[in-house]
Amino acid sequence: MKKLFFIPAIIFFAGLFGGCYYDNEEDLYPQSSQCDTTNVTYETKIAPIMENNCNSCHNQVSANAGVFTDNYQDLKTIAENGQLWGAVNHEPGYTPMPKDAEQLPDCDLKKIRIWIDNGTPRN
After folding, report:
1. Which 8-state DSSP code applies to residue 28?
2. Long-range interactions of 91-98: CB distance < 8 A, separation 24+
3. Residues whose CB is less than 8 angstroms from the CB of residue 85 and which lie 6 or more positions away in sequence, other chains included
4. CA pseudo-torsion sign 84, 89, 91, 94
5. Euclidean distance between CA atoms 98 and 67, whole angstroms
6. Of 91, 84, 92, 93, which is closest to residue 111 (Cα–Cα)?
7. Of 3, 6, 59, 80, which one is least surrounded by beta carbons within 10 A?
8. From CA 68, how far away is CA 35, in angstroms rounded?
9. What pLDDT is attached to residue 41?
10. Dihedral angle over CA of 48, 53, 59, 62, nearest 10
């Protein structure tokens, strides 16, 4: 009878203490928690963000709302007049972009903000 009591007790305590292991996101996903904000230019960081999130709707063929994000000059214009930041940051008075999708990841928003603050450099 004692053996029957010890086996469940061992299993219980092993599960109890084995389930108390905690990790933080940085330890589990080291690459996902890093945001490279060095050398933020249109070519290096901003064009890929636009390609992945904006250009399918805002390009020379189908310019929704007359907004183009697929080239430097047009994107620079909407960046400098505040339209880009207002839309991607979901600010009041702007249509939230990407449309019908989650807000861009914080890292992408940080890169866009840096790019705008640095004067929208091309290279």
Report:
1. H
2. 95/65, 97/53, 97/54, 98/53, 98/54, 98/57
3. 79, 91, 112, 113, 116
4. positive
5. 13
6. 84
7. 3
8. 26
9. 96
10. 160
CA pair distance 98, 51, nearest whole angstrom: 12
The DSSP output letter for 114 is H
23 burial via Cβ count (<10 Å: 0-12, 13-18, 19+): exposed
| pLDDT at residue 30 greater than cutoff 60 | no
Interatomic CA distance for residues 42 and 40, integer angstroms = 7
**What is the SS3 assignment for 45?**
helix
What angle (nearest 5°) sits at the alpha carbon of residue 24, between those of residues 28 and 40? 75
CA atoms within 13 A on the CB side of 85: 15
Locus of tokens 């305590």: 13
87-114 pLDDT, tens digit each: 999 999 999 999 999 999 999 999 999 9
Q: Where are the domains of the chain?
A: 37-117
